[in-house]
Specification:
The protein is α+β, with helices and mostly antiparallel strands. The chain is built from 8 helices and 10 strands. It folds into 2 domains: about 35-115, ATP-grasp fold, A domain (Dna Ligase, domain 1, 2-Layer Sandwich); about 115-230, 2-Layer Sandwich (D-amino Acid Aminotransferase, Chain A, domain 1), CATH 3.30.470.20. It starts with a helix and ends in a 9-residue tail after the last strand. Bound molecules: adenosine-5'-triphosphate and magnesium ion (MG). The site of adenosine-5'-triphosphate has 16 residues, from strand 2, strand 3 and strand 8.
Length: about 240
């Protein structure tokens, strides 16, 4: 489905949160590179999707009522075979059912597992300044060191390059100590594409890619979250 149709359908249902599968489709349309994934509604299709994608895989809960999937046991990484994938499906459904009995569950996404350095890209709405774009180191770096840079949307390629250079830990994605090296022009393009995308879709109040992975084979987003504005309210630009 097209991004605009996904956003319209969610609004028609009175929903603010897009599930991870819908969010991934929106990001793909904005031009963001993503790892391979498939939506699976039941155990059998999850196992089938896993063998098509190739082990190891990662499984995640698909629900518009779950914003942080890990918190409800909704992320399983490193699934090595069909038996493990089937067992992970059962465990995930049991855990989500127990922790969030009211959540609407569409199934799971099964996706390619990737290794790399975690970065973060996000856009949110500041009530005073308007739409912002954030970029920085992901994982422990964002939580502990808050190593991020900000700009107002829309940004230019020049702004994107500056945002990248402002990161204190940038040596890590420049290849220090054996970490994979990020192609900075591809990285700048992701930032510009996100900026252009949120500016073009004013209904999007918040968009997060956490993490965007720097791998030996290039950049790839492995998580996506899109949240719509409360009805009738858009971000001041
Ligand atoms: N495809 C993948 N390959 C490797 N590691 C992954 C993959 N998907 C997720 N991970 C790891 O698992 C963590 C949690 O997954 P994900 O970000 O999708 O869930 P979340 O709980 O919704 O995240 P958030 O903290 O952003 O709410 C990621 O931060 C990353 O470290
Ligand atoms: Mg995440």
């Amino acid at each position: 489905m097209k991004a605009e149709e996904i956003l319209t359908a969610a609004k028609a249902e009175g929903r603010r949160v897009l599930d991870v599968h819908e969010s991934r489709q929106v990001l793909l349309e904005l031009g963001v590179p993503m790892n391979r994934s498939a939506l699976a509604a039941d155990r059998l299709s999850a196992v089938k999707a896993a063998s098509e994608i190739g082990f190891p895989v990662v499984m995640k809960i698909v629900s518009p009522d779950v914003v942080h999937k890990t918190e409800v046991g909704g992320v399983k990484v490193g699934l090595r075979d069909a038996a493990g994938t089937g067992a992970a499906f059962d465990a995930m459904m049991a855990s989500v059912g127990e922790k969030r009995p009211d959540a609407r569950v569409r199934g799971v996404v099964v996706e390619e597992m990737v290794r790399g350095t975690e970065l973060i890209v996000g856009s949110s709405c500041d009530p005073q300044f308007g739409r912002m774009l954030m970029f920085g180191m992901g994982g422990v770096f964002v939580e502990v060191y808050k190593d991020v840079s900000f700009r107002l949307v829309p940004i230019s390629t020049f702004d994107a390059r500056e945002m990248i250079e402002e990161i204190r830990g940038k040596a890590i994605f420049e290849g220090a100590r054996g970490h994979p090296r990020a192609d900075k022009e591809s990285l700048a393009k992701v930032l510009v594409d996100i900026s252009t995308g949120v500016a073009r879709h004013p209904d999007i109040e918040e968009l997060d890619i956490n993490p965007l992975m720097v791998t030996e084979k290039g950049l790839v987003a492995v998580d996506a979250r899109v949240i719509l504005g409360t009805l009738g309210r858009t971000c001041p630009l």
